[in-house]
Design brief:
Order of helices and strands: EEHHHEEHEHEHEE
Pfam families: Acetyltransf_1
Number of strands: 8
Radius of gyration: 14 Å
Number of domains: 1
CATH architecture: 3-Layer(aba) Sandwich
GO molecular function: acyltransferase activity, transferring groups other than amino-acyl groups
CATH topology: Aminopeptidase
Protein name: N-acetyltransferase YbbJ
Oligomer: single chain
CATH class: Alpha Beta
Length: 160
């Protein structure tokens, strides 16, 4: 799936070297995990699927899709999938990559997780920029709140 040279692909080792050089500002690390750390966690849970955001085949972003083990903290919808550890490499921010990748996400989930009907995520209440990007991409505030490692988080969802 490609939109304006942005595409999504499941992580595999061919992306490892690029992700090792992935840059996140210290402020962003308050809200998300570095891709290498997130990939390591995926190995401990069979329901976690790391995904790379590509721009002209170069890794520029990353996220994890997590099944029921992740969803259940935020929703009782067993057909939902959780979007977590979402980020865009700081060297590529401000180019619309986040918005484009999130617009690709529903079709990606439908293709690879056909039983899913909703994408859920939790966003820190202080992370205003991320909230705006998620809302612009069709996510809505579900009016549910949870406490995360850095404080209160809003639960957003998007039907697919």
């Amino acid at each position: 799936m490609i939109v304006n040279d942005i595409s999504l692909d499941f992580y595999n080792q061919k992306y490892e070297a690029d992700l090792a050089r992935y840059s996140l500002l210290k402020d962003h690390l308050n809200y998300t995990a570095h891709p290498i750390d997130a990939i390591e966690k995926c190995g401990h849970d069979g329901e976690m699927y790391p995904v790379v955001i590509l721009s002209q085949r170069l890794p520029v972003g990353f996220f994890v899709l997590h099944g029921w083990n992740g969803v259940q903290r935020y929703s009782d919808n067993r057909k939902a999938i959780l979007l977590r550890a979402y980020s865009v490499d700081s060297r590529y921010q401000g180019r619309g990559i986040a918005t484009q990748s999130l617009r690709l996400l529903p079709a990606f989930v439908k293709k690879y997780f056909p039983g899913k009907d909703e994408i859920i995520l939790a966003v820190n209440h202080n992370n205003i920029n991320a909230q705006m990007v998620y809302k612009k991409s069709g996510f809505i505030d579900r009016s549910s709140r949870v406490m995360g490692r850095k404080g209160e988080q809003f639960v957003f969802g998007r039907r697919i």
